[in-house]
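Dear Dr. H.,

I hope your travels went smoothly. While you were away I took the liberty of generating a structure for the chain from your last submission, since the lab meeting agenda had it listed for discussion. I wanted you to have the full record in hand beforehand rather than looking at slides cold. The sequence, exactly as received, is reproduced here:
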Amino acid sequence: MPKNRNMFSSLARRRRGVTSRAVHRVWAWAQENGAVTAQHPGRLRFGRIGAGTRLAFPQGTVFGEPWIELGDHCIIGEQVTLTAGLMPDLDLGSDPILTLGNGVVLGRGSHVIADTTVTIGSDTYCGPYVYITSTNHSYDDPHEPVGKQWPRMEPVVIGPGCWIGTGAVILPGARLGRNVVVAAGAVVRGEVPDHAVVAGAPARVVRSWDPEAGWQPPLRTPAPVPIPDGITSEQLAAVALLEQKPAEGA
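The corresponding predicted structure, in token form, is as follows:
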């Protein structure tokens, strides 16, 4: 009897292994074929979707796409929400509401809610689960549920070259300058100058760049080592593989 039990157990493990591999193959196929690009937009008809831009599958909630313009070579992660307008099927006029510049990255699970204009500058990178919104609920009337009161809207502008950390929230009316760093979990409102680092809730400037004195307060991390001249991307990739091999064999 134990011999039969071992045989059935081994057979069950093999079947689970076959099923698991099949599921992974199907999911990889869905990820590849469900991605949205300019050549393969699926049901989505954006005002513009640039060359090299890709929305990973599965997509999050997307509506108002005729008023959404995506630049070239943007990377939109899985389950990212992109909306223009308060609800689907509204006529929002002739101008775009949500605009992403070239090379924008939106990490997995992020939300960009543009009930009025939201502009994200080129080469801005957002970590996972970032929330950017031009709308906030009002609570003026103490006798009405907050969710039933008409929201307030203010445009949001994020300058080029910014880095927005995981879980950060960018509130209505925020205006971020060029190359701003937003710490993970920060809640940003108001204006942030160029070349600043903000952190906290509400966020405040914790480091800024002075043309004469450099970063103030000074950086605690060592300066990055530049890549030597003449090194190709293929050589860098080969070095990365070499560094991984000991870990894989450990």
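Two observations you may find useful: The mean pLDDT is 89. The longest strand covers residues 204-210.

With kind regards,
E. W.
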